[in-house]
Here is the input.
Amino acid sequence: MAAQTKGPGGKQPTINDVAALAGVSKKTVSRVINRSEFLTEKTRAAVEKAIEQLGFVPNPQARALAFRRNFLIALLHDNPNAQTVLNFQRGVLDAIKDSDLALLVRPVDRGSDKLLDDVRTFLEKQRPIGAMLLPPISENDDLAALCEDLGVRYVRIGSAPLDDAKHCISSNDREVVAEAVRGLIALGHRRIGFVRGPVGFRSAAEREKGFLEALAEAGLTLPAELNAPGNYRYTAGIEAGEALLSRADPPTAIFCSNDEMAAGVMSVAHSKGIKVPGELSIIGFDDSPTATHIWPALSTVRWPIREMGIRAAQTLVPDFLSPGAKADDEGNVLPSTLVERQSVAAPPGR
Amino acid sequence: MAAQTKGPGGKQPTINDVAALAGVSKKTVSRVINRSEFLTEKTRAAVEKAIEQLGFVPNPQARALAFRRNFLIALLHDNPNAQTVLNFQRGVLDAIKDSDLALLVRPVDRGSDKLLDDVRTFLEKQRPIGAMLLPPISENDDLAALCEDLGVRYVRIGSAPLDDAKHCISSNDREVVAEAVRGLIALGHRRIGFVRGPVGFRSAAEREKGFLEALAEAGLTLPAELNAPGNYRYTAGIEAGEALLSRADPPTAIFCSNDEMAAGVMSVAHSKGIKVPGELSIIGFDDSPTATHIWPALSTVRWPIREMGIRAAQTLVPDFLSPGAKADDEGNVLPSTLVERQSVAAPPGR
DNA sequence: GGCATGCTGGACACCGGTATCAATAATTGC
DNA sequence: GCAATTATTGATACCGGTGTCCAGCATGCC
Here is the structure.
């Protein structure tokens, strides 16, 4: 007698339909859905059969309302590197796959003076359980404060710890950059150029620190004329390449703070007839698709971005994930790795 | 006397709080929120003042429940080209910015035999108003049928109309490819190679059609030995490049069905010492970041992907967007454009 | 056999909005 | 000036779940 409209275009069955079919109350069905204890095996089986039969799927909006919290997490980003965002997204989705959570993606404009208002409106409207901040906006302390204020959990993804461990997933970029540069020095490079990232970016600062560290260890310094400004864009790489490679005494190797700029430097080298890696070694950072698509393929640093996505989810919402509720304090620094391709060799004289 | 817990960590004010403060019923507040007519200017002002004062933001879950539909649209994709996905996403978000809608992004695995089940589960669980299918999964008729079945609106993004206009946003890829190839012929190229896309992809077939069309117009044909298989990946470009450029009679130009494969062909040319564009012209498709990052910069076809995102939103949920409720039948074919860069020139002999 | 105890499962209120429909206020016609 | 008409508002049920709290029943104990 229960109206069980089903099938194409029809209404979705509700918990009441299930309860009626199984001959129990809706609360009992609710218990089954939420895996409550205190249930006879018999009752559980009956309810599960009814659920199966009706193809019942709980309405997430209703659950959200009743639970007084929804099951959304937000990913906020303003990243020029699409692959990074998507890989991170994949990691997060891998982590929440078997949970009730869904992911809301929100690109923002870090340049806008309404950034904070935008994010506030978004968070107030959607009320996600938590938010993930990808670099570079993860470096914005006001955003973190805003989340705190609104009672929204958050994690910040960064190149170095920015906050206490429970709010921060990072990688050891500085160390790996240093390792890469040590490699150049070991090959015999002495005049090594550097293309910086944008001013005020933590990631840029970390890469620079690693670079200078390695030079210092070898008793080398970075002459001002080999230190080029940059902003992570291809065109900045072009400009830096022009500046560094037009000199009478060009560097024999250049470390670029990301792959796009490295591609720019590489283009300049090609157009000037400078052989890479024979006459010039180049190293980038990110391991973006560009790194493998340019010729010769770029040696670079691979950021464990997908793993960071997984870890970010585990840190943000451990209570919603089944087993991997890891919360080990220091586990939130993940290792970047050096990827050696064809853009590095010994300098000409050796 | 009304309890207005506000501020950090406090509860969000509800419609009841607003009603109490404004001295009206909750239904009236609801009317204000939903811009109902039949409201005195005075009442509206009073309610709006209370909303403002309390910083009230309606709970989307509660609205979704009461409206019997949520305000989510889903973006389903399995796209190797991250930039495309992100640009499309931007377009959609631009379009829905001032609406109540939110965007749920869902990567899927087109290779999985559980694809349909995955998508079904996702749609049943989240119950979005509509779904957007990006290529290549947009070509999957079963997915479209599934949406239909579940009563979820959908639009398919493709290289050519796949369905009736109200379900399909496409671009005129065939024509633009033909235009590009005509350009090569006009420059004097006669032996033009082709690197195909993956078998069974509509996008690949369209590009091939355009290519052959232009050849036919000029009375040319594509010799089997210049027709290389591909799968849109860089490595396929490498293989195709090896096959085509190792011949005694190599082509003087190669059209590649996407940029990544073009980058592969370009790498092979570089490593064989073949000058691009002096000895070999190359054209790609997509205008991905790779196209500008490689050297020389790649001539390619730009897909109006962001505009397609906007149009997709307008087609999918015109009733939720304010003015741009365009539904003109034939307006859903958007123009791709040829982007001329430095990888094309006249063939050696001319 | 009667009673305390521990499990189960149900009745009912509630989450924060919207729909229905009747009640009330404002306007109009004559 | 009064009834008829129309514009505006409110009372109450309801959307589809969950929490609270209590009742019913089987069991163990004396």
Notes: Residues 14-16, 26-27, 29-30, 33-34, 58-68 of chain B lie near DNA strand C (CB under 10 Å from a C1').
